[in-house]
Automatic annotation (TrEMBL):
CDD domains: CYP6-like (cd11056). It is found in: Endoplasmic reticulum membrane; Microsome membrane. GO terms for molecular function: heme binding; iron ion binding; monooxygenase activity; oxidoreductase activity, acting on paired donors, with incorporation or reduction of molecular oxygen. Belongs to the cytochrome P450 family. Its cofactor is heme. GO terms for cellular component: endoplasmic reticulum membrane. InterPro entries: Cyt_P450, Cyt_P450_E_grp-I, Cyt_P450_sf, Insect_CytP450_Detox. Its main location: endoplasmic reticulum. It is a peripheral membrane protein. It comes from the Eukaryota. Heme binds at C359. This is Cytochrome P450.
């Protein structure tokens, strides 16, 4: 994760440079597409080992195929919608996550990258390299990694991919040294050992490996760009919050001599609150679907969930429930102060899901968002434009993730 940070920092500087000319003339920019170029470059490099350079080439094949992932055909959307209501439809038809041309593209990219690395003995610190090691050895031992102040991972095991109903996941990483505290937060040892294991009865084929890269892409690409864009929208509408966050960023950069490290990012407490409030207000996935694999009685109730029952968790509704978040439509980072977090019930904040199927891109996505915001706020000021829609409007036919319409902001240099 730390080594991937260097790649993200490089992409963030490309983002800052790209916006410089617009800031010179106080131009109005459509920030969503610009940030999407940033996240495209990041995920292209960190997951697939590719230099996309979307700032100069926004119409690259990788970018176009990435967008297609989130634009399924009408038939696919219809089948998946029906499948949510009547699960046997999904089992019978099994509509693909992405179009065939998209699947073929990502499979080709992964195969070509693997061939090049093996032929030229190239080793990179990225997600694909981890999977390549997993394929060749069946196990990857990672060095100790920082896990300070990580309140989202509440389960000792997370899976890369699995078929629902199977007793054992396809690929598992197990984290040691953890303990539960309080009612909402989790305290952990500052360092945890992470071991990656491949199931013995599975072969890591090229297709399977490519599918894991695609899952990682799905978890990080659109969700991160939407979060950054919606966050900048709220900071623009609420300039006091923008100024407070900018002061924290300035203090942070001064303290560390302008250098950003993985550990140092954990010090940005107000940014954590701002990002968390953005994810509360605009959860990337509005609802979560789960499948009950065995009969279960909810503790403390008379409610029984039968085996093979589909369960839907309305994330957006929970995040906007006034019992947990008074005035839920109001943007208020103080909801995520340490004091307020402690008094809120567990499982009332679910932007990444929870438990064994928690989002694989959680840490990476948050790191990408924080680096992007730090780079932008350290150089630029954002203000309301006449083309800006308040509140943010969204594409109603987006199926996989929340998809905001154009977000037009006025950008200027801080010292002008």
């Amino acid at each position: 994760m730390r080594l991937m940070l260097l790649t993200i920092l490089g992409c963030s500087q490309d983002l800052v440079s790209f916006l410089g000319e617009s800031a010179d003339d106080n131009h109005i920019i459509e920030i969503k597409n610009v940030v999407a170029n940033f996240t495209t470059d990041v995920i292209g490099s960190c997951a697939f080992g590719l230099e996309i350079n979307s700032m100069k080439n926004p119409d690259s094949e990788f970018h176009r195929m990435g967008n297609k992932v989130f634009q399924p055909t009408f038939l696919t959307r219809a089948l998946r919608s029906l499948g949510l209501i009547f699960r046997p439809i999904l089992n019978l038809v099994q509509p693909p996550i992405a179009r065939k041309d998209v699947n073929d593209f990502f499979l080709r990219i992964v195969k070509e990258t693997m061939f090049y690395r093996e032929k030229n003995k190239v080793v990179r610190d990225d997600f694909l390299q981890l999977l390549i090691q997993l394929k060749s050895k069946g196990k990857v031992d990672e060095d100790f990694v920082s896990c300070k102040d990580d309140r989202h991972l509440t389960n000792a095991e997370t899976v890369f991919s699995s078929n629902e109903g199977e007793d054992e996941p396809l690929c598992r990483f197990t984290m040691g040294k953890y303990e539960f505290v309080e009612s909402h937060g989790i305290t952990r040892h500052p360092h945890i050992k992470v071991d990656y294991h491949l199931r013995r009865d599975w072969e890591m084929t090229d297709t399977l490996l490519a599918s894991q890269c695609l899952v990682f892409f799905l978890a990080v690409f659109e969700t991160s760009s939407t979060t950054i864009s919606c966050c900048l929208h709220e900071l623009t509408v609420n300039p006091d919050f923008q100024e407070k966050l900018r002061k924290e960023v300035d203090t942070f950069l001064t303290k560390h001599g302008g250098q950003i490290t993985y550990e140092a990012l954990q010090e940005l407490k107000y940014m954590d609150a701002v990002v968390n409030e953005t994810l509360r207000n605009y959860p990337p996935v509005g609802s979560l679907a789960r499948f009950c694999t065995k009969d279960y009685k909810i503790p403390g109730t008379n409610v029984n969930i039968d085996k093979e029952t589909s369960v839907f968790i309305p994330v957006h509704a929970i995040h906007h429930d006034p019992r947990y978040y008074p005035e839920p439509e109001k943007f208020d980072p103080e909801r995520f102060s340490d004091e307020n977090i402690k008094i809120r019930p567990m499982f009332t904040y679910l932007p990444f899901g929870e438990g064994p199927m928690i989002c694989i891109g959680l840490r990476f996505g948050l790191m990408q968002v924080k680096v992007g915001l730090t780079a932008l706020l350290s150089k630029y000021k954002f203000s309301v434009s006449e083309k800006m829609s308040i509140p943010v409007t969204f594409n109603p036919i987006s199926f996989i993730t929340l998809w905001p319409r154009d977000i037009h902001l006025k950008i200027s240099h801080r010292d002008r």
